[in-house]
Amino acid sequence: MDWQALRETYAFDAIASPRRRRLSSLKKVLDGHHYDGLRYPFSKERTEAGEYIPLRCRRPAVRTNLCRGVVEDSVALLFGDCHWPDVVSDDHEITTALRIFASDTNLAALMTEAAIRGSIGSTAILFEIESGKPRLRLLDTSLLDPVWDEVDGDLLRVSERFIVAGQALRDRGFSVSDDDLATRFVWHRVWDRSCCIVYEPCKVGSSEGANVDRVHTIIHDFGFVPIVWIRNLAAANSTDRPDGECTFERAIDTVIEADYLLSQAGRGLKYSSDPTLVLKTGGINRDPVAREGGVVSALTLPPEGDAKLLEINGNSANAVLNHYRELRALVLEQLHGSRAHADHLTSQVSGKAMERLNQPLIWIAERLRHSYGRGGLVQIYRMACEFSKRLSGGLVLSSGAVIGMEPLGLGLRWPPWYPPGEGELQQLSASLQTAIQGGFMDAGDAAHIFMGAVNIAGHRIRDF
What we know:
- The chain has twelve helices and 18 strands.
- The protein is α+β, with helices and mostly antiparallel strands.
- It has a domain at 276-310.
- Strands 6, 7, 8, 9, 10 and 11 form a six-stranded antiparallel sheet that branches. It has a three-stranded antiparallel sheet with strand order 5-4-12, covered by helices on one side.
- β6 and β7 (155-165) form a beta hairpin.
- α3 (66-79) packs across α10.
- It comes from Ameyamaea chiangmaiensis.
- This is Phage portal protein.
């Protein structure tokens, strides 16, 4: 089975567009639920009627989840504890306020989750204000349809539309009768530059047009759509399509092959551990009969039959494992994942050596910095500055209200991929000391260079 055949087993709502179907299918792979639509477990070989069940109709017993693993590795290198970028601007007070804003909104954790969820192609972050305090929330872009201004490239509006049960609507505060709690409704709302329009939910298949829900509709008059749209592995200013490139789509076929291979190998090894005994009977002529359970039972054969154990040998098992290693290496090569093995690393590895070892992973994380850095994190900071100017009481942070922030020179300062090792710091220290003694550098410049190397002052770090 390949990815195209597996996608045909998925069921979608009647209102789902081709784009929504594609993103929802990729989301299943990311979450590890892409085989859930197959009816039979891998251990079941025949139906109740005795018909053989093809392998493509069974759920694999082994799921490697290599796609998810590469995504999490790349995001850890992008927004991990030691890789979170520092915000910089021309105004030190604004820089301090934005750092507090990032702490108040738990922005590091939000962006980490956004980068993982956005690996299917895109992600969206809704910027809400509650009593002047900022609230950030992730939206499922497979349910959204954005429209951009062709002139300035800003969002004009974002429409959200999906099918929901009546009970879920009642939980959201809508009036739903007891008879309609199990009924399916179409949920629809639209964000634009002046308001968030919520339409009255309509029953699926209803011919009546949806009316605006005046109670839940919000007029904000911000002058911009309070949503930051991020395209995965795409240019920050690209507005020709809503989604970027999926991080792992090109390797899904190979991962499916690996899952079925390991499942079949495990099945063979189990049979080898508990083989079926074949006996030749004397003079009884009847069809072969199979019974459950290895050597406890047997296949009864006519006199001209043979007697043997049905099992797999060790050479076949080793061949399967070698083939899987090749498939795994191919997946990591396709996705630019890390092929470093912990058993092959020594206890002391320099930062430069780690960079060379994980160069493919760094390459993809470099592209993610453009998408989720300037295209995501910087846009969130800019939107926070806009709210501080448009809200009458300013943007309320834990340190107090902030009013009128201007995002002048706003950017990000990224840390090095890996901190330098002890030997590298000693070499740098000796070189700086020699430069000071020779009169080529003063002590202040040398201190800045050394602090930048250990990521204290942030020097020697590239800005986007």
